[in-house]
Structures are given as structure tokens and as C-alpha cells.
Amino acid sequence: MIFVDTNYFLRYFINDGSLQHQEAVSLFLAAGKGEKNLITSIIVVFEIFWILGSVYKLNKLKKISIIQDLLNMTFIKIEERNFLQKSLKIYKTTSLQIEDCYNLIYFYENKIKEMATFDKKLKKIVNKLS
Predict the structure, then answer these.
(1) What phi and psi, each to the nearest 5 degrees, are found at residue 94?
(2) Which residue in 36, 16, 40 sits closest to 26, CA to CA?
(3) pTM (predicted TM-score)
(4) Confidence class of residue 124 from pLDDT cuts 50, 70 and 90?
(5) Do 42 and 4 meet the contact criterion of CB atoms below 8 Å apart?
(6) What one-character DSSP code corresponds to residue 5?
(7) What pLDDT is attached to residue 130?
(8) Cα separation, 130 vs 128, whole angstroms
(9) Quick check: helix, strand or coil at residue 16?
(10) Were 39 and a residue from 58, 72, 77, 94 both cysteine, which residue would form a disulfide, CB within 3.0 to 4.6 Å?
């Protein structure tokens, strides 16, 4: 099992023609053929999302597209992949931050009855679900 860190994904998605990009492509192709077993974490996905906006200055739709492409890489094990996919759908249609969308899905999917938050936008949606 190989853990894939943030910078590997970034080199893959930000195709800069570098040797690192080529290495990332090779790893993902091998995993797609079943030759390698890959895993990553939710934290890595959120870090990618943040870097795409803060460093690469990508807009909301481009960030969604890249993260969706990552989530479609089914040869990479990602815990709670379905939570992340649902979070992207909410993020696309609201003004909530992606981490709030994830927390909202986590709240809903785990049938939690109450959320302690000072975030007014999030609290409003939570109250509708409760």
C-alpha cells in the first residue's frame, strides 16, 4: 500500500511538464492497472482544495472539477469518498466553504441531532435538517 500525499496529486493535476508530473502519471497508471495499491486521506483532499485556491488561484468550478476527478480515481482508497462527493454537490450550489459542506454531510449521514457552531449560514441549514 502506498500513501499518496498532496504534492503528488498537485503535480498530476497541474500539468507543468515536470519530471514530478511524469512520475505521478506513472504511479496512477500503474494503480489503474492494478499493479499498485494507493490510499490517501480526507486531509490530503482538503489540502489540495485549499492549495488550488490559495496558491494556484483557481475558481470554484475548476477546483470542483479537479477534486471530482480525484474522487473518480477509484483505484485510490479514500475513506468517506461518498461524503466528499456529496460535499462537492452542496459546495457547488451554496456559499458555504467546502469544509462546512463536509461537516454538514457528516452531520446528516450520521443522523446527529444538534450542532454546536457559531457559523450562522451553517446553523441555518442545520436547523432546516433537524
Answers:
(1) -130, 175
(2) 36
(3) 0.88
(4) confident
(5) no
(6) P
(7) 64
(8) 6
(9) coil
(10) 77
Q: DSSP strand E in 20-125: where?
A: 38-40, 76-78
pLDDT one-digit tens code per residue, 64-105: 999 999 999 999 999 999 999 999 999 999 889 999 999 999
Residues 6+ apart with CB under 8 A from 62: 52
Q: Please, is 32 exposed, middle or buried when counting C-beta atoms within 10 Å of its C-beta (0-12, 13-18, 19+)?
A: middle
Name, in order, each residue with C-beta under 8 angstroms of 125's C-beta and a sequence gap of 6 or more. Answer: 94, 96, 104
Dihedrals φ, ψ of 89, to 5°? Answer: -65, -45
H/E element holding 11? Answer: helix 6-13
Cα first-last separation, the chain? 40
43 contacts 84 by C-beta, under 8 angstroms: no
